[in-house]
Design a protein that fits this description.
alpha/beta; Rossmann fold; 2 domains; seven-stranded antiparallel beta sheet; seven-stranded mixed beta sheet; 14 strands; elongated; Methyltranfer_dom; Methyltransferase domain-containing protein; methyltransferase activity; transferase
Length: 387
Amino acid sequence: MPEPLDAALAQVRALLLDPALTRAVAAGRRRGRRPTVVRAELRPVTLKAGPRLQIATSDGARPYTRNVTPGPETAAAVDELLAEPFGNWHVETADATLQLRVTKSGEAQVHRGAAPARPVATPGGNDRAKEYLLDPGDEIFAEIGGSAAKRRQVDAFLRALAATLPDELTGPLRVVDLGCGNAYLTFAAYRYLSGRGLDVELIGVDVREDQRRRNTELAQRLGWADRVSFVAGTIADAVVDPAPDLVLALHACDTATDEALARAVRWEARWVLAAPCCHHDLAKQLRAHPAPAPYELLTRQGILRERFADVLTDALRAGLLRVHGYRAEVVEFVDSQHTPRNLLIRARRTGTGSTGPQRAEYRELVDQWRVTPRLETLLAADEPPAA
């Protein structure tokens, strides 16, 4: 339920001045107002001169860091930040977590939870505990469950997401997860992005109505139903409006990945993260005719043909994204010991057209292998017929 903004900010202030504070982030802006800085992060530090509160801010061009002493100086610095019209606050202490979002009407949506468990380093040793972007002890795992391997996969995905988005990202962020399934990564993405102080709205799409109901109920239990929602429908046809800034498609099988990439291009999404799963379409096309010389050895053995089809499919997907105005790269998503489907197509819209050499290298490759990628077919259907 919405709360009065002044009362919610008073709670934030109390936590920021609490000796148990571990981290806080302020970002975003309220409707019709703009803070003097785009982001602020607070955390306690210990210097030679003693304990300090470190405040790191950015004006969107350059960062600025200062360390303030406990007492009146810290209180004044905190009050100065609370007076800024930030749209979001995320505060963690050793005992609690508080997330505050200012609504369009100027009220506060507040979510309170237990503090995430944090890995403990071995005293006096050189080994450091692994730092997770979303701690394995975070409260959401109590709701969504998951094995240790699944949590490692979540962390790998979040690291790829962090590497994709700019550090100084501001403003509302609309995210769509196509083929979200049980929404493991959907909820993890929201938890991480909102923890960065971003004003996030996330929609999960899955073809199964029972999954939609299950995921919607889980969002309600987590207190996120106003920011995380789900629709039942296919990747190609589910109603999503307005268009998203960020498109996720993780382990959508075979040409479902192509449908997700095609929608991202149609939406002109700013960022795309797609982890392909299965590559049957081009593998079938490769079986239909001999390989061009001198590459017969690449496809003569079945297992090699299947693996080559995987590589060719994702190379052509990345190439097509470049042709349609994206900077695309294929990277390792998670270590292959956890899953063999461990590649990630990561793309950022550049806003510039493709070059002649980019179009030529793509066309030469598909012509040589006599294949027609499904993504090419889907995107060609959007283009007007030649005059």
